[in-house]
Amino acid sequence: MSAGLTRVPVQLGARSYDVVVGEGALAEAGSLIAPFLSRKRVFVAADENAESLHGHILRDALSAAGIEGVWVRVPSGEQQKSFAGIEAMLDAFLAKGIERKDFIVAFGGGVVGDLAGFAAAIVKRGVDFIQIPTTLLSQVDSSVGGKTAINTAAGKNLVGVFHQPRLVIADIRVLKTLPVRELRAGLAEVVKYGLIDDTEFFEWVEANAAALGAGEPSLLVEAVRRSVAAKAAVVARDEHETGDRALLNLGHTFAHAIEACARMYGQVLHGEAVGAGMAAAFRFSTKLGLCPGQDSERAVKAIAVLGLETDWRKLPGAPYQTAPLLEAMRHDKKNSGGTLTFILAKGIGQSFIDRNVDAAQVEAFLEELVR
Ligand code: GLY
Q1: What does R_g of the chain's alpha carbons equal in angstroms?
Q2: Does the annotation count 241 as an active-site position?
Q3: What distance in angstroms lies between residue 267's CA and the mean position of ligand 1's atoms?
Q4: Largest distance between two CA atoms of the chain
Q5: Does 100 qualify as catalytic in the annotation?
Q6: Residues in CB range of 265: below 8 A, 6 or more apart
Q7: Taking the model in full, what pTM does it have?
Q8: Crossing angle of the two packed helices 293-305 and 199-207, in degrees rounded to 10
Q9: Which of 59, 106, 229, 231 is most enclosed, with most CB atoms within 10 A?
Q10: How far apart are CA 291 and CA 284, in angstroms?
Q11: Which helix or strand (DSSP H or E) is residue 45 part of?
């Protein structure tokens, strides 16, 4: 492995793995993957955009290591995360002769990662897989931690399993082709780790927010490395989200409602909704008397300087309305027993899970946000 790359371990006993982070990691994918393979071939589930922009680098890297790549192209877009999408992927792998000892490589953003991870978990009763995330959001969040899922008519990510990858390769160089809107959406999940429990990391993001929003590569390397380390620590403590892994959902109860209620489906990016959702979580915490006002203002300002909208009236997909937002929140997976669950904050780096939030207070607050 070249000197510019670093390994961040995810410690899960027998299921432990590394996340390799750095500029140019994709060109080394062949030599990074080869030690795992008993037979020198991999099934690559490739997002069509990732393949056309960066597929040649992965092809060259695999062939330099003597690895055959069997490619399955996946159309871009969240609609692929469906029963039809998983069926098409499974059929393609089976038609191309996948065997129990083969590896699947997920090459693309969160959609391909979730879909290929789920396919890997169930095809031939489970094969190993490797994540090569090509968006900032998937590098810092969805490729690490083993959550895989598809969406159903009842909501997002409602059918899936935990299936940890054997390796994750996060190449910062591929982010150069990412549209700026998607880069900034990914930064929402970066600042989230500081806001949850790491004031020092928040201060680093705050100090570098404008340059991060402009895509400065050396800062992105550090942002991905530290975000992955933060996520790895939470996942190592609570792999199956029986406890504080739920902290990773800071801003997400608000965000999922925003995504469900956007004027047009898919109009607001997940990370954009998370940015506005975290701003709301801090403001709501202050309104409830839990969080000092200056901490909320600081959190909201940092999110805005990263290039994310914190005013719900100006967010893509607006206008939003209180009643459907509240209804969407009632369907959130984190809820149990009829109360609403939110990740709230006592200050920057002091987030906590509140499983007993009063719907009437949420309703009044939402009215302030959208009015
Ligand atoms: N994206 C939240 C988690 O992996 O738990």
Answers
A1: 20
A2: yes
A3: 22
A4: 61
A5: no
A6: none
A7: 0.96
A8: 50
A9: 106
A10: 9
A11: strand 41-47
Q: Which of 51, 189, 206, 239 is catalytic?
A: 189
Q: With contact defined as beta carbons under 8 Å apart, do 317 and 308 qualify? A: no
The one-letter amino acid code at 198 reads D
| Nearest residue to 185 via CA among 56, 112, 286, 271 | 271
Could you say which DSSP state residue 319 is in?
Answer: P
> Is 145 touching ligand 1 by the criterion CB < 6 Å?
yes
pLDDT tens-digit profile, the chain (371 residues): 787 899 999 999 999 999 999 999 999 999 999 999 999 999 999 999 999 999 999 999 999 999 999 999 999 999 999 999 999 999 999 999 999 999 999 999 999 999 999 999 999 999 999 999 999 999 999 999 999 999 998 888 999 999 999 999 999 999 999 999 999 999 999 999 999 999 999 999 999 999 999 999 999 999 999 999 999 999 999 999 999 999 999 999 999 999 999 998 889 999 999 999 999 999 999 999 999 999 999 999 999 999 999 999 999 999 999 999 999 998 776 666 667 999 999 999 999 999 999 999 999 999 999 99
DSSP 347: S
The strand pair at 128-133 and 103-108 is best described as parallel
Residues 356, 358: Cα–Cα separation, whole Å? 6
Q: How far is CA 180 from CA 174, 184, 213, in A?
A: 13, 6, 8
* Residues with Cβ within 8 Å of residue 359, at least 6 apart in sequence: 326, 330, 339, 340
Distance CA 104, CA 294 (A): 47
Q: What residues contact residue 76 under an 8 Å CB cut-off, 6+ apart?
A: 47, 48, 49, 108, 111
Query: DSSP states of 287-308 as a string?
Result: HTTSS-HHHHHHHHHHHHHTT-
Note whether 271 and 184 are within 8 A (CB): yes
Contact 340, 359 (CB under 8 A): yes
Assigned token pair, 315: 């967010």
Q: Which amino acid would we find at residue 34?
A: A
Q: How far lies 340's CA from each of 174, 188, 237, 347, in Å?
A: 39, 23, 24, 21
Which of 135, 157, 245 to probe ligand 1 with, by most ligand atoms within 8 A of CB? 245
